[in-house]
Each structure stands twice: as C-alpha cells, then as structure tokens.
Amino acid sequence: MKPTLVLVGRPNVGKSTLFNRLTRSRDALVADMPGLTRDRHYGIGRLGDRPYFVVDTGGLEPAAKDGILAEMARQADQAIAEADALLFLVDGRAGLTPQDKQIAVELRRTGRPVHLVVNKGEGMNRAVVAADFHELGFGDPIVISASHGDGVRGLIDAALAPFPVDPEGEDDGSGGPKVAIIGRPNVGKSTLINALLGEERVIAFDMPGTTRDAISIPFERNGKNYTLIDTAGLRRKGKVFEAIEKFSVIKTLQAIEQSNVAVLVLDASQDISEQDAHIAGFALESGRAMVVAVNKWDAVDSYRREQLKNDLARKLNFLSWAKFHYISALEGDGIGALMRSVDGAYAAAMIKLATPKLTRTLQAAITKQAPPRHGIFRPKMRYAHQGGSNPPVVVVHGNALEHIPDSYKRFLERNFMEVFKLQGTPLRIQFKTARN
Ligand code: GDP
Ligand code: GDP
Questions:
Q1: Would you say 398 is a known binding-site residue?
Q2: Interface TM-score (ipTM) > 0.90
C-alpha cells in the first residue's frame, strides 16, 4: 500500500506550495480533461518510481468549531489520524509562534510519526533557523524551501524510509477482478456490497493484520471469482456487512489503487456534487477501469430520471468511456447487468494488443488525420506496441513526437479505443521519440 504523508501547520507556512511541488508531475492528459474538477488537497507524489499519497490539510485553525471550517477541520483530523507520517510545517522567516506550539501539542497526542519541517529556509543559516524550533520537541527539524525545492527530496526520503516498498504486481489474477465500490457517504455502497455478498458465497474473510491493511473479500457470483476491496472497514454483523468507519478519502484512494475496476456509486435522489466529481477524478487519475452505478433509481420519477441523465452527461463527460447503470441496490435491481459491465471493463483493462494490429491501426489513424506540423517540425509516428495493462498503454515510436498536441493525442486514444472496442477502461498513449 502507498504510504500517506499528511501536511499540517498553521496557514501561510507553505503547505500548498509544498503540496504542488510534490504532486506536480501529472499526466498532462488528465490535467486538461474538460469537466474534471480535482480535489486540490489529495494527490500522488513520486520519489523516483516510488509513489505515495500526499494530503494538504489546509489551514489548521484549532478554533473553528462549526460551519464549513469545522467540516474542513473534521476532514483534517481524519487525515491526521490515518497518516503514515505527518509533515509539520513551520515558517523559518516568521519564527516560532504560539499557534505552532498549540499544533505541536495536538500532533503529539495523535501518536503518529511527526517530521518537523522548517520552510522558507532558502538563503538562511540552517543551524540558526533550526535552533529556533527545537523547543517544539520533535528533534532536529528538516530545513527546506518549498518554493525553491531545497531539501525537499531529503525530507521525503526521510519520511518514507520506514515503510516497505510495495512488491511489484505479483498478482496471478486467480482471485478474479479486484473491485472497489467507491462513492461519497450515503449513496448506498454498503447496501450494494450486501446485495453482492448477501446471497453469494463469501469464500473467506481475512481480517486485517494492522490498520494499514485494507480488507479484501473474495466472493463468487455466477461461477466467477471476484475480490472486493473494502473502503470503509467492513465487518460482518450477523448476516450483513456493516461499514464501521465513516467515509475516508484516503481509504478510498487506497482502495482505488488496489483495485482493477472501480464501481463509482452515485445517488439518483441527489444532485451530482463536487465530491462525486472529485472521487470520479481520483479514479480517472489512477487509470483504473470504471463502471458507474446510479443507485436509488427506485426512488425517483421519470422527470427526475431524464434530468439526471442530462446532468450526468454534462458533469461526468470525462467518463464517456465508462458504462452507466441505473440500479436499485435496495431492491436488487440491475446488479447482474452491473457485474457484467465489471467483467467487460476488467477484460478491456487487461487486453493484450498485438504489435502488428496496433501499428496498422496507428497507420490508418494517420491516414484519416495526420498530426499537425509544429513550426519546422513534422512529427512522424512509425509504429506502436503495448507498454502496459490496467490501463492499457500504447507506446508510439517515431520522431519529433514531443511536438504532438494533446488534442491529437486524444484523437489517437479515441481511435484505439474504438478499433479495439475497449469499453470501461481509459487508454493511455506514450510517445517515444528516437534520438539521433
Ligand atoms: P499554506 O497556507 O500553508 O498552504 O501556505 P502557502 O503554500 O499558500 O504559502 C504561503 C506563502 O508563503 C505564499 O506567499 C508562498 O509563496 C510563500 N512560500 C511558500 N514556500 C516558500 C518558501 O520556501 N520560501 C519563501 N520565501 N516563501 C514561500
Ligand atoms: P453508504 O454510506 O454509501 O454505504 O450508504 P448505505 O448503503 O448505508 O445507504 C444509505 C441509505 O440509502 C440507507 O438508508 C439505505 O437504505 C438507502 N439506500 C441504499 N440503496 C438504496 C436504493 O437502491 N434505493 C433506495 N430507495 N434507498 C437506498
């Protein structure tokens, strides 16, 4: 599982500057996807090829007790409780403040590992800056400059050092598709899980060894194996499964990462919210296969159904490749069809694409529409091969490919997806330019 680093500190110490620096290397394709709203507080960072989650708790104002600030504070508290390590930022230019001391007391209480980080340290004497903050009692602070990048790599190195590196995909696939049921609170995830697991044979149920482990529940349906990746600490209570923890963005992110297919559950009786779109955005960014379950279809009339379908087409247009199902988890309606789409999305995500057919498809796409010239450069694509699965990655080789615009990259993607009839998974294209 990816370690989670959580940034805390009073407002203006540089948390969001550090967050942006850590999460900057984004897939350009996802970054300019029209309609996609991203949650700027959760991101994926990379140290070399080692990924980790980063959470920015925003301004930690210990005084806020109600309203939207209190809700933010609640989410910050939850992120702190679920952190693998806390990066406690202070401002080297402003020096130690009473608010820093107050936050230090609270962080000590959490029992999580804390790294004290003195930011804005560029051009300052490290020893002098560090001395100022010693009395916070977290040992030697790490001095960085989030805006210049000084010391950031060393900080992340130190923060990640205690956590084991994930073994690279030794999944033999025998457990069937790994499915994460995701969505905001109250959309009906637990109800859907019970509809799936209720009458079906739950093969085994491994309890987590530590809180870091997510529970996976293998089950069988119509003679096929699946593994459910839990997002909320499912426990069996009598005949039904019950989510014992409240909604957690970090657990959702981890479940998406560990799954092959994410089932995004939406509530038909409510408007599509920003939180829905954020969760969809997380899944999109991860490259997972996806199926959308619009739940509580039993509870809405035909007028609302029409309205909702229009709303979905507009707000989730970046998921045009995913199948949408209109279901009632409560009444068990539409679940068979939903699971057939899960199967289809898994198959699409795992597809093996033969090099000759990929290259022929590429040539045909170029004939239909050649990439635009860029000044004196004329990008020339020569051949394509598959570079990965879940999501399928098509590596295109040629010359001057760095001059191909994103719009053309998207055209190629759509073309590959149509020709190979990939439904339910995104597809990614990587350009490899020959050096000469
Ligand atoms: P946050 O409220 O903790 O998220 O803080 P921000 O990231 O918004 O930064 C607050 C201010 O500090 C902004 O004006 C930043 O440009 C500035 N800042 C952030 N990091 C550094 C740094 O390393 N050095 C200096 N000199 N300023 C910084
Ligand atoms: P979760 O927080 O996403 O796990 O949501 P729950 O499964 O706990 O469901 C939240 C509420 O929605 C409960 O009161 C459920 O009974 C109700 N609910 C779930 N699925 C449906 C459905 O298909 N139709 C209707 N009408 N209500 C549902």
A1: no
A2: no
